[in-house]
Amino acid sequence: MTSSGTNAAPGGGSTAWHAAWELLLPAAAAPARQRGRMLQSALRESVRSGRLTAGTRLPSSRELAADLGVSRGLVTETYEQLTAEGYLRSGRGSGTWVGEAARAATAPRVHDLAPRPSGAVAEFLPGTPDLSLFPRTAWTAAHKRVLTGLPHRALGYPDPRGIPELRTALAGLLARRRGVVADPERIVVCSGVAQAMTLLGFALAERDLNVVGVEDPGSPEHGTLFASAGVRTVPLPLDAEGLATGPLRASAVRAVVTTPAHQFPSGIGYSADRRAQLLDWARSVDGLVIEDDYDGDFRYDRAPVGALQGLDPEHVAYTGSVSKSLAPGLRLGWLLAPERIRTAVVARKRTMDLGNPSLDQALLADFITSGAYDRQLRRCQRAYRERRDALVTALARHFPGARVSGIAAGLHIIVRLPERYGPEPVFLERAARAGVAVRPLTDYGTAAASRAGVTLVLGYAHVAPGDIGRGIRLLAEAAG
Amino acid sequence: MTSSGTNAAPGGGSTAWHAAWELLLPAAAAPARQRGRMLQSALRESVRSGRLTAGTRLPSSRELAADLGVSRGLVTETYEQLTAEGYLRSGRGSGTWVGEAARAATAPRVHDLAPRPSGAVAEFLPGTPDLSLFPRTAWTAAHKRVLTGLPHRALGYPDPRGIPELRTALAGLLARRRGVVADPERIVVCSGVAQAMTLLGFALAERDLNVVGVEDPGSPEHGTLFASAGVRTVPLPLDAEGLATGPLRASAVRAVVTTPAHQFPSGIGYSADRRAQLLDWARSVDGLVIEDDYDGDFRYDRAPVGALQGLDPEHVAYTGSVSKSLAPGLRLGWLLAPERIRTAVVARKRTMDLGNPSLDQALLADFITSGAYDRQLRRCQRAYRERRDALVTALARHFPGARVSGIAAGLHIIVRLPERYGPEPVFLERAARAGVAVRPLTDYGTAAASRAGVTLVLGYAHVAPGDIGRGIRLLAEAAG
Asked: Containing H/E element for B274?
């Protein structure tokens, strides 16, 4: 019995076999060199999808070969392959059946993980740089240069701390630009500030430090990151000079996350006194200040204030990344931790991922040592200063009486609107309806929204200068 | 008083100030545009190193400017900058002192993290592919192509599961080459198999599965990786067909790590029966088989046996990487986990690193869809088969009577030497003295070294064919 010109299923003749048979036909019609693979796939899929159920007897290889018009060897090989894999079972000379091993997959479910709103007419959410400033040409040139010169062994398993070339380049960069105590042995290359927090969380938990203070308002991510290491976060209030020292001392925490260069989101630059007080506190409790230098490179009114870590590297863990200067998608950052927790941090980095991709690291090292990274920082600085100015101008024009702050540095500012724009929930609803995405300061902390005024955290780095004025005008019109 | 032509320290005249003064001189002599930055660095370093101790009074800006022969504005700016950073303190019009804030760093300590022996004359350790086979030209070309076409938003924060383009490309690749049930929604891109194990460890611990069975002998890394997630590993013995089912059922574990395609390190390919029995076990305990497909792509005697995961994707978590096919330094792999733990895996991936670098992912996606990855696999397969043959030939020649096994697949084989070469410790010492790095099978498991025979795990993929014969001859000569 052959299938000559018909779709009728030969072989066992069962309904099950009939359904599978249709899947096998395209394989038989395929070019010779693909035929075997396609036949295997089709038969595998038939078992997996439940078209062929356990116990179904398959036609003999001779029979199926004739039916499909393919060589018998091809069918034998297919049966053998799928038997070895467990889809089929064969008795001693007595035929081939579908095995009991295969079980279908549960239908996939799409996870909703995309955080940014789409369809907004204007968008002033903080946290993203201008991705169009990424130096594509220079990066590709560096890639080619690096891959040409790289020794083979550099493609092997990396040092979990990072390749020496990058740690050396970063040590120079961070000492020069940020006043960090940064010898290469102190540096752990990591996947951005988020991973640095998780690494620190685990290292602290190992020392039974299970609570970490965080700035309030502050980055909403810290809670999740530390929780993943079993560490609880406690919000601690700010005053005009930075993290308030009274509540810090009263809190009994021994580690605290801070953003001294440009507090996120309030925009405060920590005062010199507060910097000193924070270190006094850390020494008195044998504790740790975690310095998140997320946008410390961008300062508009003066030279960037050096990192707190430079003052006491054994009581400050310093972390930063290229997420704001190059692109978050590179997932490249650094963590400089005090000696007493460094071994724990490196061990944890090792079990998390064995270390960052070595080619990416070599690329960034080349980019830094060639001077291209400094050029990029200057380019961003110019672009962001222009946008900041455009935003401040637009706010003055469209929201007369608004008070802006935190404008000396970073990629976002704070604006407190006059009372007539409140209450905040109403304002936010109007903004959303007009398609202008903004976030209120209250989103970042435990303080309740003010009944009267509206205070917004406006990110501007990713908005083209022309769109800034337009967006703020839209916002003002929406607010009525 | 000026320093004209002399090194005598002016200003306060104290010993402390004298020591610091020497550090400031090069700054004064520097080109104008670097002078300010260098002066700040030198003064910062003086404080940090303890040359200038807390309470030391600095010369007035007028005085220091004159002494150094620089503008007064430069000194004022330097003092202000370092005061803002906390290194210095200034009273109201009454001078500038070194502050109490700065504290020196503990001397760095070099961590010993390099695992590979250097200085060996010949090296047959398993685990590394031939890094010289990395397709540098094709990879650079893909980089250029990808970076030219990539939309800006692709440089932003990635989806923690991986970019859609790569998950789609991997789904096709894994279904086609390995018979994996691999829709893009099921895939989590990760930093190689090591991270996959850690991710799974955390996901299992969240379900109170705190013990995982591992093959004995097996990969020595698993213990460390699972321990980092708070999960204990229990060694389970093998028999000729794979993981022995009796001890598995008796162990009460509900999750087990396996290498069915080519057991590491014994080289056994799991039998069809054993594959089915493993799945039966997983279903009966509502458990999980973790399939580490670390070298499943390389099979020399027949088509690769399809992945176990294809038979029951809801009871098997499948993981693999490009570490053997491209380079471990890329840190790119994949994990396909059953629905019930996928959300936990993705959440953990997010807190570990927010996702793999997006550019690397786009590159691999391009590499796969363009067909370059298949070409690379074929190229490796040819090279490794040649080396395996060279190794088997050399062993037959220099160790007559040796029994090799596990040669059908992978990048290493097992060789059992005749009894006259034992005892093992003596043999290993002689090999080490001759500069031939080898590892015995006993290194990978709980079994005690046999008093009589010597059994070695020989990795050959990274050894040039010519060096294989030479190395084995050396080993034989050393053994006497």
From this structure: helix B272-284
3-class secondary structure, A216: strand
Hunting for tokens 């931790």 — which residue is that?
A337
* Contact of B225 with B201, CB cutoff 8 Å: yes
What are the residue ranges of helices labelled H in A213-304? 221-227, 245-251, 272-284
Chain A: nearest CA to B242, how far in angstroms?
A: 13
Q: Chain B contacts of A260, Cβ < 8 Å?
A: none
| A356 chain-B contacts, CB cut-off 8 A | 331
- pLDDT, tens digit, for every residue of A61-100? 888 888 888 888 888 888 888 888 878 888 766 788 888 7
Tokens of B257: 């790590």
Name every residue whose Cβ is closer than 8 Å to that of residue A32 and which is 6 or more positions away in sequence: none
Burial class (CB in 10 A: 0-12, 13-18, 19+), A433: exposed
Report which secondary-structure segment, H or E, holds A235: strand A232-239
Closest by alpha carbon to B324, among B59, B133, B180? Answer: B133
Quick check: bond before B108 cis, omega within 30? no
pLDDT score for A453: 81
> Is A353 in Cβ contact with B331 (below 8 Å)?
yes
Determine contact, residues A182/A336, Cβ cutoff 8 Å: yes
Residue B287: Cβ within 10 Å count? 18
One DSSP character per residue, B122-163 reads: EE--SS---GGGS-HHHHHHHHHHHHHH--GGGGSSPPTT--
Report the Cα B89 to chain-centroid distance in Å: 46
B101, B114, B313 member nearest A276 (Cβ): B101
Strands laid side by side in the B88-90 sheet: B57-58, B96-98, B88-90
Judge residue A153's burial from the number of C-beta atoms within 10 Å of its C-beta, 0-12 exposed, 13-18 middle, 19 or more buried.
middle
Q: Which of B110, B143, B357 sits opposite A143 (nearest CB)?
A: B143
- The answer on pLDDT for B163 being more than 80 is yes
Report CB contact under 8 Å: A194, B332.
no
Residues in B touching A303 (Cβ below 8 Å):
40, 77, 81
| Contact criterion met (CB < 8 Å) for B131 and A332 | no
Asked if A206 and A227 touch (Cβ cutoff 8 Å), the reply is no
| ipTM confidence | 0.84
Q: How many angstroms separate the CA of residue B418 from the nearest CA in chain A?
A: 32
Taking an 8 Å cut-off on Cβ atoms, the answer to whether A352 and B308 are in contact is: no
Give how far Cα A239 sits from Cα of A236, A262, A263, A455, B8, Å: 10, 14, 11, 16, 46
